[in-house]
Amino acid sequence: MVLVTGGTGLVGSHLLLQLAKAGHQVRALYRTKEKIALVEKIFGYYETNAKPLLDRIEWLKSDILDIPNLTVAFTGIDTVYHCAAYISFDPKDRKKLLKTNIEGTANVVNQCIDSKIKKLCYVSSIAAIGGTPDDSYVTESTEWNNTAGYGYALSKHGAELEVWRASQEGVPSVIVNPGVILGPGFWTSGSGLFFKAAFKEPKYALPSGTGFVTVRDVVNAMVLLMEQRIENQRFILVSVNRTYLDVMAAMAKAMHKKPPKKVLSQLALQVGWRLDWLKGTILGKRRKLSKATAALFSTQEYYDSSKILSVLKDFTFEDIDAEIKRTAVIFLAEQRS
């Protein structure tokens, strides 16, 4: 049986769909029943009759920080996809980020070792890979650095170290490092926030850019890596390197909205994170832009995905613009409903 942590997230829900379609018996962890309904909605995007596939999933209420429940979750499991993670760019959440992503992954790794799991796949992020001082491409061997000091990157890097520990203690492991993941259904987090922003016809977009990939590409790569004799390696999953302006414009056009024409200046970002700090400090509002995240928008990183293409001969990346159009159709339909 296959175990999926974080089964109610963007990657996890799409992974469950692919595993169920392939005939696997799957156990998925969840924290609230409301999230299961969201997975059912995701299945409905792709299948007219999703019930037989949903019936292949055994849901178990658990948390990766709850060791007793996690021990139960591993009963009868032979392979593990670890997708669960806490995502926040609010400096106030730094301790929670480190605890959930590092300690939680350590708990998963310990269970994998104790249960003699055949293989582990961990969903990390390009945030856990070092950057470059110039326009050269980031690869899997780029040296780690976190000069911006933001907690999410540090937590994912720390989680990767736990996965490498698993590989040292007899659990074959692979890590995927996706860029910004594009896909439907999750409009209040990740790339869903970009669609919400583009829908409002902003005049400005964020400066610089990063790597982008579709959720189906991430899931497909994960499954292929687990099925083949590939272990103890990491893989960047980036289809294209694009500016935020370019991507936001494509989203706006797909929704028949006016695209942004300009990017925010660095001065605006510097003023912005300070105002955001004041709102968070004085009014207690949740931070949206910290000093560390503002620094990320000063330069564009370019990511090299040639390794995954050379290892998986039958794997190709989907067209990003086609995915933006597909996701935009779903977004607009749900805005009208």
UniProtKB/TrEMBL annotation:
Protein name: NAD-dependent epimerase/dehydratase
Origin organism lineage: Bacteria, Pseudomonadati, Bacteroidota, Flavobacteriia, Flavobacteriales
GO molecular function: aldehyde dehydrogenase (NAD+) activity
PANTHER family: NAD(P)-BINDING DOMAIN-CONTAINING PROTEIN-RELATED, PROTEIN YEEZ
GO cellular component: a single term: cytoplasm
Domain named NAD-dependent epimerase/dehydratase: residues: 2-228
